[in-house]
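JOB MANIFEST
job_type = single_chain_structure
chain_count = 1
residues = 449
[input]
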Amino acid sequence: MESIECSLCHRKFDDNTLLSLHHEYEPCFNSNDPLASHISYSCPICDKIFHDTLVLQIHVNEDHDHTSVHTTSDNLYAQELERRDRMKIKHQQETASAISYEQLEEQDNDDNDDARIARMLQEEENAQSFEEFQNRYGGSTRTFSERARWNLEKVYKKKFISQQKYDEYKNKLDEMIAQPVERMESRSTGLIQIISRLPMSNILDRRLCNPGCDHMSSTWLDQGWACGYKNFQMLLSSLRNDSQYSMHLFGHDATNQINDDIPSVSYLQKLIEKAWTAGFDSAGREQLNGHLINSTKWIGPTEIMACLANLNIKTELFDFHQPKTIEKSIAFKYLFEWIKNYFQQQQENRNNIIHPLYLQHEGHSRTIVGYEQLRSGQIRLLIFDPSTPKTNIDQFRKNPNDKIHIFRRTLQSFQKPVYQILVIRGLLRTEEREAAKQLRSIKVPIPNT
């Protein structure tokens, strides 16, 4: 097939559709521009590698047959961060260059107002295009309310919701954001029990976390930036079933559960800010400018650690670095072994309720709910990903044997340079509370090969 070349930046595309999408959503860089250096992007579902986000977007929508608006995952947005930063630098440089040129021209010709107005309008147009690109890839500085409203418009234009639903959501959008408990539309319950009943066939061992752990999908209300919050909610759904933690978190014991008492994203933002005010993670507070409420700022494991510590729950954060001397596709075998040991040790202690692990890596977070070891010795993880739409979860319920792959992840899919795992470790003693305000991580040593 003959490729089609962009007349502006000379990038080549397989068809006119990709070329038109490129013109609509991407800036044109000169091929000699250092800002245009190639970056690879991995599919958040099947981990195939791509070099163009538009191709990746179409691959996700077409090959994985996601009919919901939630097909674009937080992971896809995250992979644009580095590229977007370079774009911003380039935009600032071009703006500064244009201003310098304008000043020089004013010295030469004070009467050339038309040229100055033309450049000013072009700069405004460039800035607007940059903002639109940021919105597409989830990195703008819009508030929670503004981003939710933008998402709602997108959902409606793509005909994912009716006019009636659109009007209903639009009229009560602020109320939906402010509600303290998570909407049931995001939650999928009972999945651990279904997985536990699947046939073993070539599986030698399968270990799972607390059956009370729910899956939380991103919805149009918080799509594109809230993966950290969603994984926090998954962790909380497990803790609410454990009498050791439920009173600290929900004000009642595990035998007196309220089915819808998982905190919403906006309420978690308040809890994190409350932890900051109490003196937990002052460095993180400074990094996020001391403000989370009604923002679309991403959170990671340190914000969760601070929030839980303020509620007297102890956590540990472990760092796993990619060994340089091991082939990349199997570099994190020691991470998989560590996860296996965690679930085995927790299960051996019959007094323990096994809680999931919060997994963080560059640009995305997920929740590890267990593992399977094949008779061949291979380990694959069982992972709840907030970017998995609820429509896919419903398909799994109907046909779990054929759809279990949406939760399984192999060693070959772990390609990031660093992974972090957050573990629940009991309750903080009074004398430990002050030390817990300074967050630390533990680097797991790479085994000798």
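[summary]
Confidence is low (pLDDT under 50) at residues 33-38, 64-81, 104-111, 128-139.
Residues 82-136 form one domain.
exit_status = 0
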